[in-house]
Design a protein that fits this description.
14 helices, globular, 8 strands, 3 domains, about 60% helix
């Protein structure tokens, strides 16, 4: 993707500001399009220090949250978030600069990426193999059985450590041999996504060697899966919660626990005007448990589900 002219960059900045300028402690500079030409960009002056040069893990978390909104909520994302384009302003905000290189993440791809993360964390490697086909990493003719076996060998030990200990960079490194063997192709759209996430994890590691971007992002993925009305994600949630006719209460508890962690962290980093998603989560899960094999819930610890879900509601 080539950088665009300054008029286009200014319009990108306007759109970025409209979508993400309301996030707490995020600064997106004003663009003066009426004074901008193809060769001259006129925008708000921003002063600050490179994020990589200040010890501010909180603002890295702000960046992760903002990236989550870019990649998984709206699909319009900053495709060049190198340290020079991320500043800590003198009043403690994260400023984004340079909107010449932006990416568009279509809805079906966003849902597919969420599904892949969900399947990875839950060790559903057969479903993960299918995700790689859907996302364009592998052709439809790929041998699903062989790929599932390979993915199990690559990811099983890493996933067993828990989502909070999974390194995004390590996952990519471990996948290298498998990608070569099965002739994986990295779509152009995804190379920009990888770059964006890798830069953020790299910045965070400067301040916290144990930081994991997937561990920070997954709670919001869990919340989105629990609250989103997308048929694709609803189908994935159903597949995660039910197996061979049995309701998997442990997976529901895990999703709820992670979702609660997102809300707890979001007390510090959240949109100024945020819709209440609790009612959506209640309706979403009850639509599965009360309309399909409710007896399963009753005999497999529905009382635990009620207690934990009640705790989630009270905390949200």
């Amino acid at each position: 993707m080539q950088e665009m002219d300054y008029v286009k960059e200014a319009n990108n900045g306007l759109k970025f500001r409209k979508l993400y300028g309301g996030i707490q402690d995020v600064l997106v500079p004003e663009m003066y399009v009426e004074h901008t030409t193809r060769r001259v960009l006129v925008m708000e002056w921003v002063e600050g220090e490179k994020l990589s040069e200040v010890n501010d893990l909180y603002l890295v978390e702000v960046g992760v949250y903002c990236s989550f909104n870019q990649l998984l909520e709206n699909g319009f994302y900053h495709a060049d978030p190198h340290p020079g384009n991320l500043l800590r302003t003198f009043d403690g905000k994260l400023a984004y600069l340079d909107f010449g290189m932006m990416g568009e993440f279509k809805q079906e791809l966003r849902d597919g990426f969420i599904e892949a993360c969900l399947h990875l964390v839950n060790s559903d490697f057969d479903a993960l193999a299918e995700d790689f086909v859907t996302l364009g990493f592998l052709p439809p003719t790929a041998d699903r059985g062989a790929i599932t076996k390979a993915l199990t060998g690559v990811f099983q030990n890493a996933v067993a450590k828990g989502v909070r200990n999974i390194s995004f960079g390590d996952l990519l490194g471990n996948l290298g041999t498998t990608m070569y063997k099965f002739k994986f192709q990295i779509p152009s759209y995804f190379s920009l996504v990888i770059r964006s996430l890798a830069v953020l994890e790299g910045l965070a590691i400067i301040f916290d060697r144990n930081y994991k971007v997937l561990g920070s992002t997954y709670p919001w993925i869990a919340r989105k899966v629990l609250t989103n009305s997308s048929p694709q994600l609803r189908s994935s949630l159903r597949a995660i919660l039910y197996k061979d006719g049995a309701f998997r209460i442990d997976r529901l508890e895990s999703l709820m626990s992670e979702s609660l962690r997102a809300r707890t962290e979001k007390a510090l980093v959240k949109r100024k005007t945020e819709e209440n998603e609790s009612e959506v989560a209640i309706k979403q899960i009850l639509s599965f448990t009360l309309t399909k094999n409710v007896q399963i819930c009753l005999f497999q610890g529905f009382h635990i589900f009620c207690l934990n879900f009640g705790f989630l509601i009270s905390e949200i």
